[in-house]
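Form 7-S
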Amino acid sequence: MKRVVVCSGGPSKEVVDFKQLPFQLDETIFIGADGGALWLLKEGILPNEAIGDFDSLTPEELKFMKLKVQKVTELLAEKDETDTHIAILTAIDYNPDEVIVTGITGGRLDHYEAALHDICRLQLENPTIIFVIQNNQNIIRFLPAGTHKISFDDHYKYVSFFSFGEYVENMTLQGFLYNVENEYMDVGNAKFTSNELKDQTGTISFTAGICLMIRSSD
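Output:
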C-alpha cells in the first residue's frame, strides 16, 4: 500500500507517534505543512516536501528547514486555502492508496474544522483513496454509502459513528459488541458512540449519507 503522511503545524502533542504506525517509514512519502515540517525533522524524518507560508516559523527555523528539505514550496500568506489543504492536494498527486493527516486535531479550531470538511469532500471525490486523520488517541475517517470492513485494533479499540452533514440510512453493524440492522442516524444522534469490535473484523453498511467514524483509545 502506497501511503502519504501529511504533518500539519498544530501542537506537537497532536502529532501521531510514527513508530506505532504499521508501515515502513522509508516506504512512505512525508509532506510537512508549514510548521509540520519541523515536527517531522524533530522526529528524525526527512520530509519529501515542505509546503506553506511558514508564518509560524522563526527566521532561524525557516533557514534550518530549508537546509534540510530538498523541495520547499513557499505560499503567500494571503490565500483562500489553508497550508494543510494544499499539502493534501499535493499528497493526492502521488497517487497513493492512503493519505494520513496528523497535527491538525489541536490548536486552532477553525483550522481543524476546515480540515474536517476538506477531507470529507476529498474522500467523496477520491473514493479509491483512504483519507485518515490520526493522533495518538484517535483515528477519524469519513465513510461514503456502501459496505466498509473494519479491522480490530487493540490500541484504537472504541469505535463511534456519527452522521456528518446529513442522515445515514439503513445502517447495519455486524461483528460488533452492539450490532444494529437498518438503523436511521440523523444529525445530532449520539446513540452509536463507543462501540467495540467483538470479532477480528466487522462491517458497517448503509445506503445513503456520510458517516463520520472515530476510533479511540482509552
